[in-house]
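Re: export button greyed out
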Amino acid sequence: MSNAPIVTAAAVIIGNEVLSGRTQDANIQFLATALNDTGIRLMEVRIVADDENAIIAAVNQCRQAHDYVFTTGGIGPTHDDITSATIAKAFGLDFGRNAEAEAILRAHYKPEDVTEARLRMANTPAGAELIENPVSKAPGFRVENVYVLPGVPRIMQAMFDGLKHGLAGGEPVQSVSIAAYLPEGLMAAGLSELQEQDPDVEIGSYPFARDGKLGCSIVMRHPDAARIEPIAGGVRKLMRGLGGEPLEDDA
Amino acid sequence: MSNAPIVTAAAVIIGNEVLSGRTQDANIQFLATALNDTGIRLMEVRIVADDENAIIAAVNQCRQAHDYVFTTGGIGPTHDDITSATIAKAFGLDFGRNAEAEAILRAHYKPEDVTEARLRMANTPAGAELIENPVSKAPGFRVENVYVLPGVPRIMQAMFDGLKHGLAGGEPVQSVSIAAYLPEGLMAAGLSELQEQDPDVEIGSYPFARDGKLGCSIVMRHPDAARIEPIAGGVRKLMRGLGGEPLEDDA
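Workaround output, generated via the alternate export path:
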């Protein structure tokens, strides 16, 4: 177990609407959680504009640094959907009509509704493998380690749920979260000692305000739950020693 | 007006808790909207782990590419708060106790509550300018064009509201949003024509599902509202021509 490789991913969120503040992103948290469940660690996210240079730079940096890259957004039928053509440029591949994707779209729409704009959604980089879209049919695609998905959350999530079984993950990270109504400034010294006790268990401290009271959640993460337990015991003891009551968090 | 410079920004969100899916980020949309109101365009966001190399790479790439960089997260009192020391490394600056910040903390806490951990929050890169924290006192700081803020949203937002008057923005971007219960695939050709009519007005198309019906919001953005109006007129005409009713969106 403990020798399993660490498998990493990056997400590239493509969309002016997130950068303008018009839209609250809803894809990052889904991808983070779903990847973790698959044993893949989301290591970075980049949100970039619908801009060719910005997309190419982000995708090319991320695909070299990580095992997997997931992009969301910009694969629809309108003029501002430039992701697919841009991914082809990022890989130096030809870009054109994918016969399989065209067949899927033609089977889905009435003949009179097969517009040129909709057929744009059948264009992919040469050699791309399609990703099935169970909701609205227009497929995503994969080129090497880059998975190209739409931005609409319920469609993206359905497509991810279909493709995730093909991902090769490592060990899923386990986590234990314990909260107390104590200021983190008072717990800090004890937490540092616990961190030194096992540097491999990630110990995060997250202050919060609930019901007008200040508190702090301590989150411990490691692939092996047995490695977390002694640290979690130490955190409970630390909280009680400071006059707090350890509360097991859901988070 | 139209010759005002375009002023750009990047945000670097520092936090394992966002990448693990534990926390839904709440700072990006606030920064996007608040910066836009100040005439500054948020061009990219990076979410990175509490990891020195990742933070340095993101901050150094972003501060060279943009007029402003805003970081959130990792400036609290615990061992996992490494942002301040890492920003010093990114700039090649010494890192140590800031007398002004120490005075603020000592004035805020009772003498017996001034722990070593809390005094860590008074450490800054040499020469940093403090950013006032009206909520919980521990200040943020600025080094050149990089503004270092906490991750807790209500504190970050209060601090941003205080500092924003010192930012030099360009023209705020105006936007008009018009929705219709029409599939974007049918509007796509007409939208392309409108985009060619004025390539400087950004025209975005965002499909949605509401009350079980599919529709699409067309968002037009430009610093000059008078440049948007003819395109908006064209969008309304296009929607009516396809049998849809243009609805003025709030978004």
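Chain A is about 35% helix and 25% strand. The button fix ships in the next patch.
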